[in-house]
What we know:
With about 375 residues, the protein is of the alpha/beta class. It has 2 domains: about 5-160 and about 360-375, Rossmann fold; about 170-355, Rossmann fold. It contains 17 helices and 13 strands. It has helices at about 10-25, 40-45, 65-80, 95-105, 125-135, 145-150, 160-165, 170-180, 195-215, 230-240, 255-260, 270-275, 290-300, 305-310, 325-340, 340-355, 360-375, and strands at about 5, 30-35, 45-50, 85-90, 110-115, 135-140, 155, 185-190, 220-225, 245-250, 260-265, 280-285, 320. Strand 2, helix 2 (about 40-45) and strand 3 (about 45-50) form a beta-alpha-beta unit. The protein is globular, with a radius of gyration of 21 Å. One of its GO terms (molecular function) is phospholipid binding. Pfam families: LpxB. It is an enzyme of class 2 (transferase). This is Lipid-A-disaccharide synthase.
Amino acid sequence: MSRLFIVTGEASGDAHGANLAKALRALRPDSELVGVGGHRMAEAGVELVTGLKRLDHMGLPGPSVLLGAYHNYRRLAGILNRTRFDAVVFIDHPGLNLRLARVAKAAGQRVVYYIAPQIWAWAPGRITLIRQVVDQMLVILPFEQALYQQAGVPCEFVGHPLLDQVAPSYNPLELRHRFGLEGGGPVIGLLPGSRESEIRSLLPILLEAATLILKQEPSARFVLAQAGSVSDELLASQLQGREVPVTVVKDQASEVMACADVLLVASGTATLQAAIVGTPMVLLYTTAWLTYWIVRLKILVQWIGLVNIVAGRSVVPELIQQEATPDRVSKEAMKLLRDPEAAMAMKEALREVRESLGKPGASSRAAEAILKVCRA
């Protein structure tokens, strides 16, 4: 029997943690899984640590967020110091997880990091700590393995876990029927993110852009992918009083992407998910100006969208900060709707991105690597 402690952070980490837990149980049904996550991990059979504060804050933290993070750190550090595990698995969320990895290593735990910190984007100095505290790095982007191996960190590329969540193909007509989107006009998918701060800052821009699109394309329909971490009340408050009719679909992001002709997507994992589905998109993001300038000073890559970073070129338009206006968003969307050649060129580039991410089965390969560490 293997006893494992799995620590995730935000909503996407919960999904990856759940898939990993299922893969571990498939390989070792007697595995004992304890961890930090959300409802997906609980449904996958992980015994969750209770009493933790929210882990998905973005931007500059205020006093309450810092206090909550300190509370989480103390609670989890206590568990790592008191309880022996065969391996401790950290998933993404490096702000807290690298600190906890230091604690775990000092306590004599074996440390595995799944979905690596993006040191190629910012904070390259973290590699020194990673080399000291991580026994095995499991990466999901094709260029990361060489980067970590050159730095002296044992590393394996397992492929991207999104390939396990996205079906090989979808029937757009069937999905439109399921969501009540029948008709001859184009369908635009709205993906405003999975965090409350993203919904409050980005959804108003998307809805105003939808209004502008509707004036030019009266037959257009709009479907919004609601993440499980977003409350119905928050979404309802943002949609109330809007003239544009929006169909809301919960916890079916890939299906929303597949039924749409064009997507308006918040920067993040969803852009890579959309690339795997293969739907043309426009990427946008805004944050507090102080946060933005701090990040811009530290960032090492030309783009912020994962799809562009993996492609190594500008495949998807990025509208960031002052460029993320309803007018710009609607113009980029209309270009993809009215220019079939531009849409097809983007689809071809997205296909190349998908192929570079490896083959399905990332969660199983990660589980095998983790159990190998347990046996070491």
